Amino acid sequence: MSGSDDELDPTRLAAQLACHRSSTRGVIFLTGAGVSAESGVPTFRGKEGYWTIGSREYHPQELATHAAFARLPREVWAWYLFRRGVCRAAAPNRAHVAIAQALVRLGDRGLLVTQNVDGLHLRAGAPPARTFEIHGNIDFMRCADECSVARYPLPDDLPPLERGDPVDEASWARLLCPRCGGRARPHVLWFDESYDEPRYRWTSTLEASAAAGLVIIVGTSAQTNLPWRVVERAAAAGATIVDVNVDENPFAEVARDHGLAVRAPAGDAVPALCAALES
Less Cβ crowding at N or C end of the chain, within 10 Å? Predict the structure, then answer.
């Protein structure tokens, strides 16, 4: 199956995806910030993510690093607790819900690989065992000294921060590793760090992509390494690639060669695609 941009015609989509309803090959949903943008969660790579410390304004790519945390741990935590408050105030949208329901129906055939750290997929009902959060989850922390790879939920009653607020003493005293008592860090993949298996499911994601028969990409602009590996491996193995995005992006070119590109909001396109998989 190959073609140009497709319309949200349920009959046409059902016909194009018919071969995947009875297939034994896997179905991967690969999601990025565009899914959660429809819930009001900003990407934080743009102006929304800028953070002022003292007299200097930091860009997200400067703060979301191990080097920044080593120099300014309390300030980096303040930025993440602010972001966490924004994420927790958002609600899953129709795309999150459709993907979660599809994963339940697909069982072991289905897999969600998400770059989003906001936890909205899990809140929508996505099965945790079939959800690979390859960039981490902002609701969790782990030991900054790597005493183990275990992750721990942040305390539910940590107060959300407004933009520019510091971390108060009571909260700072609770941002510690439960295992060794040392400083904890956000469980997220920083720009100066690499993917691995125990924290970010590197190997498992690559193995699944080689066995997939269908990859549905939703709301990602192809700026990180592992998502590219997923799409390249799946396409090389003969998988159908579907790209859903309101904007043109590099994944759309792959999709046109191996499936279809849908130029539509996730909340409109994803429920239609999921319905086509089962109709």
Answer: N
